[in-house]
Specification:
By secondary structure, the chain is mainly beta. It has two helices and 31 strands. The chain has helices at 8-11, 113-116, and strands spanning 13-14, 16-19, 39-43, 46-56, 61-72, 77-81, 95-98, 102-106, 132-136, 145-148, 171-175, 178-182, 185-186, 197-198, 202-206, 211-214, 229-233, 236-240, 258-263, 268-274, 284-288, 291-295, 312-316, 321-324, 327-328, 344-345, 348-354, 357-363, 366-367, 372-373, 377-383.
Length: 414
């Protein structure tokens, strides 16, 4: 049988600026402030973003955020959502997930904002959260609803056998009527970075029963980690990447190159794939049809270093193979040496269908070279291959020439 091959040029795309961030680094009435460590969701043609953090250099002040915005992909316009006074308090590095109707927000950290007004960034129980909230998507009358947690002053539930630990930078996904959370960082009473450790527990919130439970799984399972990517996948979810953090062993902080799937009907983990391309922490991750897409993240083996590529990874479900994501950067703006959207950490990535293509929407994050926070929405329209009788030669995908995009505005410096 003749092997059918795909024209790589038909797959290639280019990032373009769909909505530029304002000249004021703090945002304005029409556009949210740049941020990273925020939450995001997509329903129909509306992307919702909420919470996050940036540092205001002009006022020399850390800015922990609790605002919520909607980005309308058709009109390419933002809209601020006034959701009342009851909401998750200011925080970042939240663990978030969404289903067909709601965005869920779990945990995060405020760096000690509630206890010292942001004068000194701390790690540990006084800065971290384990409360759970949800927000109905694309609903004019929607308000934040606290599903589990303490009083409005503490926000947290008491830790114990029936409640997840306070954590941030973990994974979260919805599947089969439950919200799952795995991994993340949890500090100790020292409130120092050296007191942080990565978690390896899987918890589920039963939406119908309104209760947490420690999930019991069978077979091999992922190691404890933080900064991993976690996305819904039908009756289960996918988990990839991240880093070890063992506070007793400074050298045991390797990056993971694995991709796992949990089948929530059998509660069995499956190791789907290993690939050096997946070896990254704090990458933006999304599901796009039968594909998993990662963008950015830190690929440096040493945790004190930052090597943040301006590239992505495309994983094909059918053939269980990875390839570089065929999306080019924009043109290099005047005065800069690198091209947007820049390699970045702690951004969010979502996708929506558009005929035979997928629209990727990248928002927020923090880049290292140049060092800045981001508030523009970048868009890429990508043709993703469908089924075939033979696997595509993913390792040979090239980026065919394409028309030059309009110059991208440079984001405000961090």
């Amino acid at each position: 049988m003749e092997r059918r091959r795909r024209d790589a040029g038909t797959m290639a795309s280019t990032w373009t600026v769909a909505s530029a961030q304002p000249t004021d680094a703090r945002g304005d009435e029409q556009t949210p402030a740049p941020r990273y460590g925020h939450g995001a969701a997509i329903r129909d043609d509306i992307m919702t973003i909420t919470h996050g953090y940036y540092f205001d250099h002009e006022r020399c002040k850390p800015m922990f955020l609790d605002d919520t915005w909607e980005y309308h992909t058709t009109h390419k316009k933002w809209r601020y959502r006034s959701l009342g006074s009851v909401r998750p308090c200011k925080r970042f590095h939240v663990q978030y997930a969404w289903d067909a109707s709601h965005l869920y927000l779990f945990g995060g950290t405020d760096g000690g904002l509630r206890v010292n007004k942001g004068e000194n960034f701390i790690f540990g129980p006084r800065a971290e959260f384990n409360d759970l909230w949800r927000l109905q998507l694309n609903e004019e009358s929607a308000r934040w609803e606290k599903l589990h947690g303490g009083s409005d002053e503490t926000y947290n539930a008491v830790e114990g056998q029936d409640v997840p630990r306070k954590a941030h930078m973990g994974g979260c996904a919805c599947a089969a009527g439950k919200v799952y959370t795995f991994g993340g960082l949890c500090g100790d009473e020292s409130e120092e970075p050296d007191g942080l450790e990565a978690l390896g527990e899987l918890w589920s919130w039963n939406i119908g029963e309104a209760a947490w439970s420690r999930a019991k799984t069978t077979g091999s399972k992922p190691d404890a980690r933080y900064g991993c990517g976690m996305v819904s996948d039908g009756d289960g979810f996918l988990l990839t990447g991240g880093r070890v953090r063992d506070k007793e062993d400074e050298d045991a902080r390797k990056l993971f190159d694995d991709l796992w799937r949990l089948d929530t009907t059998t509660m069995a983990w499956s190791l789907l794939h290993r690939d050096p391309l997946l070896k990254r922490v704090d990458a933006a991750v999304c599901r796009a049809g039968n594909h998993l897409i990662l963008w950015g993240g830190n690929v440096a083996e040493q945790p004190i270093a930052a090597e943040v590529p301006c590239d992505g990874v495309l994983y094909d479900d059918q053939f269980r193979a990875c390839a570089p994501l065929p999306v080019r950067p924009c043109d290099v703006p005047s005065g800069l040496t690198e091209a947007p959207p820049f390699g970045r950490l702690h951004a969010t990535l979502v996708s929506i269908p558009d005929g035979a293509r997928r629209v990727l929407l990248l928002f927020g994050g923090e880049s290292v070279h140049p060092h800045m926070y981001h508030g523009s929405v970048y868009e890429a329209r990508l043709f993703l291959p469908g089924s075939s009788e033979d696997p595509p030669d993913l390792g040979d995908l090239s980026l065919a020439p394409a028309p030059a995009p309009a110059p991208a505005p440079a984001p405000a410096p961090a």
